[in-house]
C-alpha cells in the first residue's frame, strides 16, 4: 500500500516539484487535497495523472487525512509555524523544507506531540554533507578562526522572500569557529542581471537556482578560504525530500514520537 502524502505549498515551485516525484514513486501517493494560500483556494492542479484540489488553512478543519498520511511542507516563512501547529494537533508526521521560521518553537511543538518530523533548510544531499562538515569543524575546533573576517553572498530566483536558510546555517558554524558574523550581513542577490553577469548563473536557471559563496579572510588577511556551492534547478531537493519521507517512515515504524530529525540523520540512516 502506498503512503498518502499531503502536500503543503501547492502550486509553489518546490511543492510541485516534490509532488511530481511523489506521484511517480511506487511507495507514496499524493493525497487528493493539498494546502495552498487563500489565493488558490478551490482550484485544482494536475500532477502526474492526479488532480489535486487546493484548500487554504481556514478550510483544513473539513479535511480528513488517512491515519498513515505524512505531510511535506514547502510554503512560506510566515505560514510554516501555523502549519506545524496543525500537523502536531492532527497527528500528521511531516517533512519541513520551508525556511526562516521559528525553529525553536517548532521543535518544542514536535517534542510535546505524538508526531516526529524531519526539518532541514536544505534537502540536497551534497549540500547537507558540506553543512555537516562545517558543523563538525565548529564543534571540534570552537573559536579556532577567531579574528577572521567573513563575507557571504547568496543568489536565488528573484521571488525568493527570505535570506537563504542554508546560508544562515553555515554562518552559525562560522560563528562557532569564532567568526562573529550576523546573518543580517548575508548579501542577497535577487537581480537577474547581476546574477548572470556577476554570479555566473546560466540564463536558463535564473528562475530556479541557489548559488552560495563564503569568503573567509584569516591571519590578518594573509590567508583566504573560499567555499562555494551552486545548485541549478530544484530536482535535488525533491529527491532529498523523498529520502527524508522514507527515513521518517522507518523511524515511526520503530516507535519514534516527538522526535525532530535533520537531513544529517537521514544520511546516517
Ligand atoms: N529545504 C530545502 O531543501 C529547500 C527549501 N526551500 C524553501 O521552501 C520554501 C518554498 O520555496 P518555493 O517553492 O521556491 O516558493 P514558492 O513561492 O514557489 O512556493 C510557496 C507556495 O506556498 C504558498 N503559500 C503561501 N502561504 C501559504 C499557506 N499559509 N499555506 C499553504 N501554502 C501557502 C504560496 O502561495 P502563493 O502562490 O499565493 O504565493 C506558494 O504557492 C521556501 O521557504 C524556500 O526557502 C526551497 C528549496 C529547497
Ligand atoms: O528558496 C530556495 O530556492 C532555496 N531555499 C533554501 C534556502 O533558503 O537555503 C535552500 C536552497 O538554497 C534553495
From TrEMBL:
InterPro entries: DapB_C, DapB_N, DHDPR_bac, NAD(P)-bd_dom_sf. Residues 5-123 form the Dihydrodipicolinate reductase N-terminal domain. GO terms for molecular function: 4-hydroxy-tetrahydrodipicolinate reductase. Pathway: Amino-acid biosynthesis; L-lysine biosynthesis via DAP pathway; (S)-tetrahydrodipicolinate from L-aspartate: step 4/4. Its EC number is 1.17.1.8. One of its GO terms (biological process) is lysine biosynthetic process via diaminopimelate. It catalyses: (S)-2,3,4,5-tetrahydrodipicolinate + NADP(+) + H2O = (2S,4S)-4-hydroxy-2,3,4,5-tetrahydrodipicolinate + NADPH + H(+); (S)-2,3,4,5-tetrahydrodipicolinate + NAD(+) + H2O = (2S,4S)-4-hydroxy-2,3,4,5-tetrahydrodipicolinate + NADH + H(+). Keywords: Amino-acid biosynthesis, Diaminopimelate biosynthesis, Lysine biosynthesis, NAD, NADP, Oxidoreductase. Pfam families: DapB_C, DapB_N. Residues 127-267 form the Dihydrodipicolinate reductase C-terminal domain. Belongs to the DapB family. PANTHER family: 4-HYDROXY-TETRAHYDRODIPICOLINATE REDUCTASE 1, CHLOROPLASTIC-RELATED, DIHYDRODIPICOLINATE REDUCTASE. This is 4-hydroxy-tetrahydrodipicolinate reductase. It comes from Botrimarina mediterranea.
